[in-house]
Design goal:
The chain is elongated and about 40 Å long. With 76 residues, it is mostly helical. α3 runs antiparallel to α4. Helix content is 68%, strand content 0%. The protein has four helices and no strands. Keywords: Membrane, Transmembrane, Transmembrane helix.
């Protein structure tokens, strides 16, 4: 990815809207993608307990923002 706000980050953020963690996977970051997906879907699966669903929603928003603001510093 070139820089924050680049087309790649926008595409990754849009991917994360539909599937939490997919934006990180598009960026080549497998571990954050798995963590976001597991926490979000685990929270959504336990929606009737309310608190896990709220945590899942917060992590979903975090996944979108993380994909949109990711800066590759050349360490990958």
């Amino acid at each position: 990815m070139a820089s924050q706000g680049s087309a790649g980050n926008v595409i990754s953020a849009i991917c994360s809207i539909f599937f939490p963690g997919l934006g990180q996977l598009v960026q080549g970051r497998v571990l954050p993608a798995l963590i976001f997906a597991i926490i979000c879907f685990g929270g959504y699966a336990l929606w009737w307990l309310v608190v896990p669903a709220i945590i899942g929603g917060i992590f979903h928003l975090w996944a979108i923002l993380d994909a949109a603001t990711y800066k590759n510093n050349g360490y990958d």
